[in-house]
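Student: Please help interpret what follows.
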Amino acid sequence: MEIGVVTSGAARVAVDDTDRPLIEAAAAALGASASYRAWDDPAVDWAAFDVVVVRSPWDYPERVDEFTGWLASAEAAGVALHNPAAVIRWNLDKRYLADLAGVGVAVVPTAFAATSAEVTAALAGPAGFGDGGRSWISGVDEVVVKPTVSAGSRDTGRFRWGDPAAVALAERILAAGKTVMVQPAVPSVAERGEVACVLIDGALAHAYRKGPLLARGGGLLLDGYQEQRSLIEDLPTAVWDLAGAVHDAAVDVLRRRGALADDRPLLYARIDLVDLPDGTPAL
C-alpha cells in the first residue's frame, strides 16, 4: 500500500514533526510505505496513492484559500483523503464551535466578530456573554482573542478586559480579512493548561497535557508548550466521556450537512478540553 502523507514545504516541519519516523516505521511494519509530500507541490499525483492522510500542512492558516482550493481539487480527482475534504474544511474554521454548542456539547462560551462593531460588543466584558447557567464568567477578569482560522496560537492573545491591546489585535485580525473569536479566559488554562484527547477511528487512544502558553497582555510565554504524555487512566472519566461525545456530535453534524455519508467514525481527531471553574470539562 502506498500512503501519501500531506505536509508542507516549510523547513520547520522537518524539525518539528517528531512523529514522522514513527509513522514511517509503522507503515513499513505493515508492508506499506508512507511518502511525505507538500500539499502545494504541483508535481504530486495524489490520486496515485492508495490513501492520503493529512498530517502537517502547517502553513494553511496563511494560505487558507489556496489550501481549500487544493482540498477541492483532491476531492474532485477522487483522492482517498482522510479525514475527508469536507470534514477538514469544516474543521479549519473554529466557528464549528457554534455548531457543536448548538447540539448540546459543553463549549467554552465564544463570541464571533466580523466587524469592528462586533469586536466592540464582544470585548465589552463578561456580561456580554450572558449567564445561561454559566455564572462563573462574571468572575473571570481576562479574555482570549484570536482568529477563527489559526494554528499554533498564531495571532492569539490573553488580555484583561478593557485592555486596548485586545482591541488592537482584533482589528489586525479583521484587517487581514479574518473573523475574530473572543472567549472568557478559563482560569485553569493559565494554571495547568489543557488536555488534548486523541481518537483513532473513533476510539480513545491517548492524551497529553499542554501547559500554559499565553502570556497576559499578548504574546507567548518564554518556554512555549510544555507537553506531558498522560495515560488514559490518569484522566477523569468525565474528560474521556466528553471527548467521545464531541467526536460523535461532530460526526452527526457533518452527516446532517452532507459532509459524511454515514455515521462511521473519523479516522482521527484531536479534541482539546479545559477544566471550567466548577470542575467540569469543556471543549
